Amino acid sequence: MKITYESQRLSLRFFLLMLILFAGQVAYGMLLAVQQVDPTILAGTLSFNVVRASHLSLGILWIICGFIGATVFVAPLLSKREIASQWLVKLLFYALIILAIWNISTQTLAMQGIAGWWKGQPWLQNGLEYLEGGRVFGIGVLVGFLIFAFVVLRTFPNFRKWNEIHWGLGLGISALAVVWVFGLFYISRIDLQEYFRWYVVHYWVEGVWEVIHISLVGVLIVIMFKASVRAVGFAVFWGISFVWLSGLIGNAHHYFWIGTPEFWQFWGSFFSALEPLPLIFCFWHIYLDAHVNKRPLDNAPAFYFLLGSTILELVGAGILGFTMTFALTNAWSHGTWITAGHGHLALFGTFGMLGIGAAYWAVAAIRNVPDFDQRIGRFGFWLLFIGMLGMAMSFAFGGVAHSFVARVLGLEWTSGDIGPAMSTFKLILPIFGFVFTVGALVIVYDLLTLGTHKAQPFEVPSATGWRKAMTGFEAGTWLLFMCFFGLVITFGLLAFNLPIVREEGDPTLPYLLSAVGYTGLFAATIAFVARFTASLDSRLRTTYPEIATPDLAVET
Fold it and tell me: Which of 107, 131, 210, 385 makes a 20 to 30 Å CA pair with 80?
């Protein structure tokens, strides 16, 4: 496990920056969880809305660092040559540092009502949710994306030699800049402004980030399990096709709230309901590659995070996204804590875990330390995994109560009437947030010191009982259980439309169905990942022979 091209070392700086920004986001997240319990903490200095905006922005920035780091690491393998224009890669790194500092430092301007208006544009602070950065930040990001796309496309071989993985990464990275343009102008009409804001917020995730995610997962699967490039390329092609088919039109489920024609309610709901399909397809290929050839794990933490990425993508983006995007459920869940549960699992689970998994593989290869203590990374994974699921469960349960007291009883958030109904979940949130924070510290420490701790003797457990090889039938059964609990959650949200709830104010049915659905889904998710990883632990290596990196550029 070592690098093939010297320019792959450039990825290390992006992964280190990713860890720093990740730690900063987690710190802001813990402050948010505490402020949920007591909103007066740091009010006027770091008010809740400023901390929330910084938390989101740091999340986006460190995920992009992970994308860039992973792409810089795999691009030479896909091209069979060194990275082109390496000075631009170094420039991009320093530009990311400046943009991160600029974005965080200008967030406090929102408390003072300073946007930096000039020539009809807010240059310092935008004020739009998820797009808070002003035009200076936006233009800087656009230039960074153009540099990134230029370097990758120059490194890749001629178009005629591209396979499906080349096309996936090439199209995804190029689209980063194209879609970002929709967020670079101010429109005074709020409905039209929201229309284009969702172009950036949603199409980045459903139409661009997902494409990059699927392509990078494919590359890492080939590297980890020496899988067939042709077979993985086939999965990447159909995964991207399904994502664009469902995600591009599925974005319309947001249009219900911004004054667009009524027919978008149906089409947005329908295509959003199809979005779990490519996620199931992506997971299923990971199952096949991990089990069919029965190769031992060379780097358990890297695969654990890759598996966590696809599972939490399926649960957070797919199943929980499915439960809340119908007009009849979204009318109750929109803008509540239910959305926050979906968002945390989808964003960190899908893209954050991918970056961490890629970092574990790349850092070990760059430092040429295959013989590192993998127990720390596995322990950190479980802390992050359980912590994030616990936070999502707190958000989900709190969101159901939020939906009832706000949408059925008509109580107002700003008046403080909703707080008592959610107080228990506001207390549970920082508990799981603390578990997640400890996991983040463990991962940051482990990656920064990777190779300094010698591997401890490890007795490979026998492949019996819970650790026996997982069959396709068993994996499918687990998936059916998870989807079943997703349907229970959906029926719980649909129950808000019943007269007994809407008119008589009896929340028993939605509360009961939601309790069964969310508890069952999160318990099944943890058990499934535990079972999946246990089936691979019995194949862990006790020695680490050199294994040649597969030729990613040959098969098309």
Answer: 210
Here the tokens at position 193 are 């402004």
Inter-residue contact 248 to 312 (CB < 8 Å):
no
Q: What is the DSSP string of 320-367?
A: HHHHH-SHHHHHHHTTSHHHHHHHHIIIIIIIIHHHHHHHHHHHHHHT
Please tell me the predicted confidence (pLDDT) of residue 418: 78
Does any domain span residue 239?
A: no
Q: What is the DSSP letter of 368?
A: T
Query: Residue 320 and residue 53: Cα distance in Å, rounded?
Result: 23
Of the candidates 110, 140, 161, which is a domain's last residue?
161
Gap between the terminal Cα atoms of the chain: 25
Amino acid identity, residue 259?
A: G
Total domains in the chain come to 2
pLDDT in tens, 170-195: 999 999 999 999 888 888 888 888 88
3-state secondary structure of 188: coil
Residue span of the structural domain in which 89 resides = 1-161
In a domain, 268, yes or no: no
Mean pLDDT of 452-475: 75
Nearest alpha-carbon partner for 58 in 110, 8, 133, 151: 133
**543: phi then psi, degrees, rounded to nearest 5:** -130, 160
Instruction: Tell me the DSSP string of 106-123.
Output: HHTHHHHT---EETTEES
Pick the last residue of a domain from 105, 138, 161. Answer: 161
Contacts of 62 (CB under 8 A, 6+ apart): 17, 18, 19, 21, 22, 25, 352, 355
Q: Is residue 202 part of a domain?
A: no
The helix (H) or strand (E) run that includes residue 170 is helix 164-180
In a domain, residue 468? The reply is yes
CA distance 163 to 179: 24
Could you tell me the two tokens for 385? 């995994």
